[in-house]
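Minutes, project huddle
Topic: does the predicted pose make sense with iron/sulfur cluster bound?
PN asked that the exact inputs be recorded in the minutes so nobody has to dig through chat later. Recorded below.
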Amino acid sequence: MAARREELRRRLVALGFDEVLFAVAAALPGEGLRDWLAAGRQADMHWMERTAEKRLDPGRVLTGTRSVILLGVNYWPGPLPAGEATWARYALHEDYHDTLQPALVEAGRVLEELYGVSREDYRGYTDTGPVLERGWAARAGLGFVGKNAMLISRRHGNWLFLASILTRVELAPDEPVSRKFAGLPGEADRAVGGLCGTCTRCLAACPTDALPAPGVVDARRCISYQTIENKGVIPRELRAGIGRRIFGCDACLEVCPWNRFAQVGRRLLLTVRHDLAQLTLRELLELTPEQFAATFRRTSIKRLKWAGLLRNACLVAGNTGDRTLLPLLVRLAGHERALVRAHAVWAVRRLGGEMLLAAARAAETDAAVLEEYAAEVEPVGG
Ligand code: B12
Ligand code: SF4
Ligand code: SF4
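Predicted holo structure (tokens), as shared on screen:
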């Protein structure tokens, strides 16, 4: 039995998963998730409410689930040259949902082969499934949940994508990290921040005070939520704190001392797009819908859509203090999409360009009046 389980682990590592661990599928304690939802910290991610009970109990997703296989893929890129806009490191790849999915299908085939089960006996997910991935990963001993809410591995720090396979196959569970690595006698990893000690770096590093308590992210204030998930107006009080972050936020990840062990990932399941980090703000502010589609085609950024990225680029431009961007921003203040206009106007004002804005508005009015006049003196078809 143990040999077969180790063979499974070896084969999944060979597929490209850097961590493969097993947990018993008994339901997770639910207070953390339920309190989080009750406090409204999910913002408008209402799908989290609808699927809460499933996230805690895999038996509600696949009846008869006995084990959860937790998979981690290291995406630490090593040091990257700084660009004008800052992108969350995870986003500088082709969409990991797409590139990990085929490997999950392969992993399922390995399970079928080794345990003689069928496709009905397991389900694989990465991110989008109703699975509380960090809770399961902590239970499986993949790492512990830090005060930054991230699943932190001793080998990779917090630079891991997580995926999971729920299965009816019974697999002996792995040990929690506290016993394996830290030599701690108890269940330190069962509490959020269990292996953080007295460190509070991540709490202090959050630019928008989105970590009201250790391990608790208030999505309403989180830059990651605001720049990726929120498809509408970004609250004014958070805009300055967003700084140069155009898509996602790594501020509470970067400062974690556990990252010192991270090595550049094997990238067997990831295709890097580090070129995106070199796009200048001018290029971003001038993007046409066609250029947006071509540049971000296979990335997770495509889901933000053209207007969403322009919205974010306007905020970043406003935060740079670079007044040479004003002409582009003034042009965007007349954009066809109200979402872009609103954020462009904010950026122009932040850069002290009210006069330019007023001039542009006057010019617009003049043009409109002239058009009306022209229509009157030369009626269409007259
Ligand atoms: C919704 C969501 C978001 C939201 C809300 C974030 C949040 N903290 O909940 C937003 C949009 C803000 C977001 C942001 C980010 N996200 Co996100 N997100 C998710 C998603 C889809 C659900 C998370 C969730 O259930 N949140 C609800 C809260 C209450 O749950 P939780 O944070 O997981 O914490 C619970 C458990 O950890 C558990 N627990 C804690 N300790 C222990 C110990 C034991 C033993 C047990 C049993 C349980 C347990 O208790 C907590 C409360 O119940 C997951 C994918 C998934 N299906 O799980 C990805 C996921 C968490 N995100 C991920 C990433 C990469 C990010 C970002 C880094 C992206 C970025 N750079 O911009 C940021 C990081 C923000 C942060 N500090 O958490 C990764 C995290 C990988 C990792 N190593 O932890 C995930 C797992 C996606 C993936 N498949 O890789 N995200
Ligand atoms: S991702 Fe950024 S905004 Fe969100 S909690 Fe972490 S540091 Fe704060
Ligand atoms: S930065 Fe410090 S407090 Fe935050 S998760 Fe890392 S070790 Fe824990």
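Observations noted during the meeting:
- Residues 28, 32-33, 36, 45, 88, 90, 126-127, 131-135, 138-139, 145, 148-151, 158, 160-162, 189-190, 192, 217, 219, 222, 224-225, 229, 248-250, 252-253 surround cobalamin (ligand 1) (CB under 6 Å).
- The two ends are 90 Å apart (CA to CA).
No decisions taken; revisit at the next huddle.
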